[in-house]
Amino acid sequence: MSMFSIFNVSGSAISSQAQRLNVVASNLANVDAVAGPDGQTYKARQVVFQTVPFGDAGSAGVKVQTITENETPGRRVFNPQHPSADAEGYVTHSNVNPVEEMVNMISASRSYQNNVEVMNTAKQLLLKTLQMGQ
């Protein structure tokens, strides 16, 4: 694996984790949502990653394969005065678990930071190598 392929690997990871952070932000913004833009109850979304081999032998990156919706039923709260209440007086809220989403956010943020650090270290090593050749 060449030093330059490190930038491809870490760059793909940074891009994927940025997408994951956007999905987490969307989920957290809809924790207490009753209805989404389509009139249906908001469902939590999860990012599914896929390994992507690069041209170099032995190097691989990552990309977002798909974003799936969690099919767990939402939390039902009895509130007959709410405009979105069903015939029984229950309002269905989103199925977003804020604790899980905070864990996902911390994990994605750390992975993003680690890959930025890998790129900075590789850059410093390349610069040191160039300085040695002077």
Automatic annotation (TrEMBL):
InterPro entries: Flag_bb_rod_N, Flg_bb/hook_C_dom, FlgC. Keywords: Bacterial flagellum, Cell projection, Cilium, Flagellum. Belongs to the flagella basal body rod proteins family. This is Flagellar basal-body rod protein FlgC. Residues 88-132 form the Flagellar basal-body/hook protein C-terminal domain. The basal body constitutes a major portion of the flagellar organelle and consists of four rings (L,P,S, and M) mounted on a central rod. The rod consists of about 26 subunits of FlgG in the distal portion, and FlgB, FlgC and FlgF are thought to build up the proximal portion of the rod with about 6 subunits each. Residues 7-36 form the Flagellar basal body rod protein N-terminal domain. It is found in: Bacterial flagellum basal body. Pfam families: Flg_bb_rod (PF00460), Flg_bbr_C (PF06429).
